[in-house]
Amino acid sequence: MKQIRAVIVEDSRLARNELKELLKDYSEIELIGEAENVDNGVELIKKTKPELLLLDINMPEKDGFELLEMLDEVPITVFTTAYDEFAIKSFEYNALDYLLKPISESRFALAIEKVKSKIEKTKAPEELKSERLTENSQIFIKDGEKCWLVKIGDISHFDIVGNYTRVFFEDQNPMLYKSLNQVEEKLPTQNFFRANRQQIINTNYIGDVVPWFNGKLKLTMKNGVEVEVSRRQSYLFKDRMSL
Predict the structure, then answer these.
(1) Which residue from 94, 82, 109, 87 is spatially nearest to 28, judged by alpha carbons?
(2) What does the domain layout of the chain look like in residue ranges?
(3) Does residue 53 sit in helix, strand or coil?
(4) What is the Cα–Cα distance from 62 to 59, expressed in whole angstroms?
(5) Alpha-carbon span 34 to 7, nearest angstrom
(6) Which of 23, 48, 99, 206 is 20 to 30 A away from residue 148, measured at CA?
């Protein structure tokens, strides 16, 4: 997935900083601007045309609903507010999600997954087809003097090595001269999962799952490799695997 350009409109500086801190875990989201009131927010959105808007509802003079009414083209909108009485009204404005402050990491993670899913679904089928490989697709890897033609479904996991990626299949682990983010953009989403910043795993190769420290999970792959799933990704893993 290409980077998602995001804007924050929120009158509280503390709340803006909290959102920016949450966004730091998402390399796929680029924060391109922030505004502290509706008028500045409208100007920023019209100028930058973001895909994602993180929007406070309660603001001085004009509220978040009025902001949306002032736009000709509305980005995917996730409302943030300290007041739950606005929840029903927010969905009348076609908001994708509604986050109640203080926003937890797990709840924010689920909202971002909704955003990514929404963007994927809006793409043309031809575009999706050209972007994603399938489990039966083969990729060519050349590392030094050795070459491999590897089926995607035979790869157990990928590891970051500097700016490049190491690929693990059978008893081989050659280097692929692309970043892990570039690799992730091509992988079939039904099989591959970003366990942490350093690793992507093939869920078909998971042998064991155990609870770990601070809400994390530890996976043991069928080849014996142990993978620690970050706390944020553990929430998503449980949700995805229906645990």
Answers:
(1) 109
(2) 4-126, 132-241
(3) strand
(4) 6
(5) 6
(6) 206
| Rounded Cα gap, residues 148 and 138, in angstroms | 10
| Angle of helix 105-122 versus helix 231-241 axis, rounded to 10 | 60
Residue 161: name the closest of 180, 148, 142, 144 by CA. 180
What are the structure tokens assigned to 196, written together? 């942490």
| CATH label, 132-241, candidates 3.30.930.10, 1.20.1260.110, 2.40.50.1020, 3.30.70.560 | 2.40.50.1020
Which tokens in the block code for residue 146? 């050795």
Tell me the per-residue pLDDT of 77-87, one tens digit each, with 9 for 90 and over: 999 998 888 77
Residue 168 and residue 225 in contact, taking contact as beta carbons nearer than 8 Å: yes
Are 140 and 165 in contact by the 8 Å Cβ rule? The answer is no
DSSP letters spanning 85-144: GGHHHHHHTT-SEEEESSPPHHHHHHHHHHHHHHHHHHS-HHHHHHH---TT-EEEEEET
- CA dist 159 and 214 (Å) reads 23
pLDDT at 131: 66
Low-confidence ranges of the chain (pLDDT < 70): 1, 88, 91-92, 123-131, 242-243
Compute the distance between CA of residue 212 and CA of residue 152 in angstroms, rounded to an integer.
29
Which residue, among 170, 184, 172, has the nearest Cα to 133 in the 3D structure? 184
Q: What is residue 188's three-state secondary structure?
A: coil
CATH no., domain 4-126: 3.40.50.2300
Read off the tokens for 27: 């390399």
For residues 4 and 52, the answer to whether their CB atoms sit within 8 Å is yes
